[in-house]
Amino acid sequence: MNFMPRPERDPTPREKAYLSALEAGELRPSISGQAGHMCRRFGWCEAVYRLPDGSELRRSELPAQMDSIAIVKAGYRAIGYCLTARGRAALAKG
Hints:
Layout: H1 13-23, H2 34-41, E1 45-50, E2 56-58, H3 68-73, E3 77-83, H4 85-93
Antiparallel strand pairs: 1-2, 1-3
Helix pairs in contact: 1-2, 1-4
């Protein structure tokens, strides 16, 4: 797979609302759909997983070699999303 750089752009008002909800601590904001998809696509947020022992980890904290199949086999469950540093910068810029 070829490296595809993420395009830079400011979030739309709906995406800003989604990012603000994540910043407020909501794991699954009701403002979802296309706004949530674009936030993940532009790297403004990342998944949070609950491990079998009950602890929670962000996607970036998992081992690099874990793909989606390995995550499921390990028993991790996606419980929501959280802001990344890139998302905080996009929210602050707008």
